[in-house]
Design a protein that fits this description.
Helices cover 76% and strands 0% of the residues. The chain is mainly alpha-helical. Helix 5 crosses helix 8 (106-132) and helix 7 (93-101) packs across helix 8 (106-132). The mean pLDDT is 91.
């Protein structure tokens, strides 16, 4: 999976051939199909592997503080350096696979949607924790802000990759920090 996941992530489901997979992994098609029902099952496993890599790095970074407001700042801090990290994965798995699977692969797209919802739920939980201990304003709608922040991050990832320019990511993270300070902080 460590070898195959970046290939699917970079090339996309449709553009990744089984020959590329066998050449990269050193396995025969029979060996691969002995572990996976079909190419779609392999691509879903590859997506889950990449997401696990990404989420473990974010979780590790968030463990630097117990404060909900500081965790929000840690999210923007993590994404300031996301471009270099995600290149190792073949790009951002959520963005790459989401775009690739939309209108092409319903099962793969559903897996992306589950991950997006999980990310947004986790950010909303951080915000709710902050509201509860009065670090974050009680006027804040946790899910609305979680979706807003995630949308800003995904848009910045898209622009950073499209333009090959980290300005988009860094500037957006500065804007998120400004939102945390001026709109969210109690």
């Amino acid at each position: 999976m460590q070898t195959v996941a970046p290939i699917f992530n970079k090339n996309g489901y449709a553009a990744t051939s089984m020959n590329e997979i066998t050449n990269a992994s050193g396995l025969t098609k029979g060996a691969i199909y002995g572990h996976f029902k079909n190419k779609e099952a392999l691509s879903i496993s590859a997506f889950k592997y990449n997401v696990k890599q990404m989420m473990s790095k974010i979780s590790e970074h968030l463990s630097l503080s117990n404060s909900p407001i500081q965790k929000l700042y840690l999210i923007s801090d993590f994404y300031r350096n996301y471009y270099a990290f995600s290149k190792q994965l073949g790009g951002c798995p959520v963005l790459n696979v989401g775009v690739d699977a939309n209108n092409q692969n319903t099962l793969l797209l559903e897996n992306v949607r589950i991950v997006v919802e999980k990310i947004q739920d986790q950010v909303a939980a951080i915000i709710e924790d902050g509201i509860e201990i009065e670090e974050i304003s009680s006027e804040i709608n946790a899910m609305q802000y979680a979706k807003r922040l995630d949308t800003m991050i995904q848009g910045a990832i898209f622009m950073t990759y499209t333009m090959n320019d980290e300005f988009y990511m860094k500037d957006t993270m500065d804007q998120i920090d400004h939102i945390i300070l001026t709109e969210m902080k109690a």
